[in-house]
Amino acid sequence: MARRDDDALSWGDDDPTLDTGAAEEPDEWDEKPATALPTAAPRRTVTAVVTNPDGSTSTREVVHPHADDRRASTKPKADADTAPAPLGNVALVLFGVLGGVYALFAVGWYLAGSRYYGFAYFSVEPAGYIAAWALATAAPVAWFAAVLVLAAKRPVWLRLVLLVVGALVLLPWPFLSTGVPA
């Protein structure tokens, strides 16, 4: 039994989640049931004519050197090879921040549209103004969703560039220039 002074040095060493890099003994649950091993695919052989050192020739059956490569190249790729890589922590944080910015832009367009609603009767039909107001309010959310859905297979940097460009284009200038009525 370890002394009490050594407890601090060995505490948690028997934790099964601790990865020490050492090979572990197989657990009884890890053992697989005995099954027949799959048979190897027949290898393609080629008849080769070989010249011996004494000048005579002989024929030999030789395994084709690229038989395994040919089978591997015709094998369809797994879906895991074509799936996009998972996002890193920085990308997730940036997408979250930009999503919040787009949500604030939608609120800004809504508030700016409510400020100008009383003046709309002088220049625009009220139904047309309400339609434009609804589209302006939905545009930031629609752009954010479209970039995330339509560019899902594209690189992360391209999605971030598209979101930054959209943030510059969809900035709610009426709200920033006049604010909200008191």
SS elements, strand count: 2
**Strand share of the residues?**
5-15%
Shape: elongated
Major sheet description: 2 strands, antiparallel
Which strand order do you get reading across the main beta sheet? 1-2
Percent helix range:
40-55%
Unreliable spans = none
The helix-strand sequence is HEEHHHHHHH
* Annotation field: number of helices: 8
The separation of the N and C termini measures: 76 Å
Overall pLDDT, averaged?
76
Q: What value does the Rg take, in angstroms?
A: 34 Å
Structural class: mainly alpha
How would you characterize this protein structure?
With 182 residues, the chain is mainly α. Helices cover 51% and strands 8% of the residues. The chain has helices at residues 7-10, 67-74, 79-82, 89-115, 120-123, 126-150, 156-169, 173-178; strands at residues 45-51, 57-63. A two-stranded antiparallel sheet has the order 1-2. Strand 1 (45-51) and strand 2 form a beta hairpin. The longest helix has 27 residues, at 89-115.
